[in-house]
Design goal:
Elements (H helix, E strand, L loop, with lengths): L4 H17 L8 H10 L4 H29 L3 H17 L6 H12 L6 H25 L5 H24 L5 H27 L5 H33 L1 H5 L3 H25 L16 H16 L10 H31 L16
Helix pairs in contact: 1-2, 1-6, 2-6, 3-4, 3-5, 3-6, 4-5, 5-6, 7-8, 7-9, 7-11, 8-9, 9-13, 11-12, 11-13
Subcellular location: Cell membrane
Family: Belongs to the UPF0421 family.
Pfam families: ArAE_1
Length: 363
């Protein structure tokens, strides 16, 4: 069982909401805890956005509940009809994200049996908003998300696992079904990584200058994730066309293996360079992969194609072409990341650099 920061923050926000609600009334204060649970968000920006949207949704839910009770009274069918109307209204107003808590607000207000109805409705609405505000405060000041650290280590870990299978696959020592199963896991991890990046991208800066600095960092991390996906796509093609690769002539296989080793070493260096742990060393676009190697690989492959029809082969040239094409696409993506890294550290030295703590945040 893994307990993340968001789980702890949810617990703290519930405790804070219940504590604050007790100053208004002990009766019904548990609604604040429920509201805090619904309102907890994975990012600070989403928390800020949630306060506005939740306030709008809860106001609509509360007003609808009061109107329906005053017009038709309290009945099971009236409550159900009110929920349908509320969901439809929120959908039209593009407030689907707050539907859950808005419906809860409507239900607890309509569930009134004694005392002054308007006073009870106002109190329960206040309980709901206390929960929303408590969740936002906790999300802002308590264990703020470390997006750069998470993204960096997740890229590093996913790439490391992919590289292991690439080396085994090109040597013919991998099991097809095991690699295929791990590919599904890699796809899930990269998708999760991209979702985490979207949260990072949504974060807002307090000043215009800081916004420009953050934009450059976000572009760099976007390319890191894109390069990771290219490595995944390469492994997927190597696994899919494993038999074709193993039946290639030895000289072509050796050249492909050499090229893959260079590409993976290049990627590993770039990941270290993003955090400024290794010197830039070379000018942008001057990669570890020498152009001569690329020409050699193409020359060997073209020679093989010329003699393909002269003898009977145990592989499909179209499949091999897809693998080699994936290698070149991967290389181009790494060179683009190389260019961005050089630009970031050579031309923006006055800016605050990427901060990565020595922690492991693997998914």
């Amino acid at each position: 069982m893994k307990l993340g920061a968001r789980i702890f923050k949810t617990g703290v926000s519930i405790a804070l909401a219940l504590f604050l609600a007790q100053f208004i009334s002990l009766q019904g204060s548990v609604v604040s805890g429920i509201s805090a649970l619904f309102a907890m968000q994975p990012s600070v920006y989403k928390s800020y956005k949630t306060i506005i949207e939740q306030f709008q949704g809860n106001i609509i839910g509360a007003l609808l509940a009061v109107a329906m009770v005053q017009l038709f009274g309290v009945h099971i069918l009236i409550i159900a009809l009110s929920s349908i109307i509320l969901i439809a209204v929120l959908s039209q107003l593009k407030l689907q994200n707050v539907t859950g808590l808005a419906v809860v607000t409507q239900l607890i207000i309509m569930d009134h049996h004694q005392g002054d109805f308007f006073q009870t409705a106002l109190m329960r609405f206040a309980f709901v908003m206390i929960g929303v505000i408590s969740a936002s405060i906790v999300n802002l000041v308590f264990l703020p998300p470390k997006y750069e650290t998470k993204l960096y280590y997740n890229c590093l870990n996913v790439c490391g696992d992919i590289f292991k299978w690439i080396r085994l696959s090109i040597n013919g020592t991998s099991e097809y079904h095991i690699v295929k199963k791990d590919l599904e896991e890699f796809h899930s991890r990269i998708t999760s990584l991209e979702s985490q990046y979207n949260l990072y991208k949504d974060e807002r800066a307090y000043t215009k200058r800081q916004a420009y600095q953050n934009t450059r960092k976000k572009i760099l991390f976007k390319e890191m994730i894109s390069a990771t996906r290219k490595a995944y796509e390469l492994l997927r093609k190597l696994n899919r066309y494993e038999n074709d690769i193993l039946n290639l002539p030895e000289d072509l296989r050796i050249q492909m293996k050499f090229e893959l080793d260079e590409l993976m070493s290049y990627h590993e260096e770039l990941l270290m360079r993003v955090t400024n742990k290794v010197s830039l060393g070379r000018a942008a676009n001057t990669s570890l992969v020498n152009d001569q190697f690329k020409e050699d690989l193409l020359d060997v492959y073209l020679k093989e194609l010329n003699s393909y029809h002269a003898r009977e082969e145990n592989y499909y040239k179209q499949h091999v072409f897809q693998v080699i094409g994936a290698m070149f696409e991967y290389r181009e993506k790494l060179e683009h990341l190389d260019t961005l890294t050089h630009s970031f550290y050579n031309y923006h030295k006055e800016e605050k650099k990427i901060t990565v703590e020595d922690e492991n945040f693997d998914m």
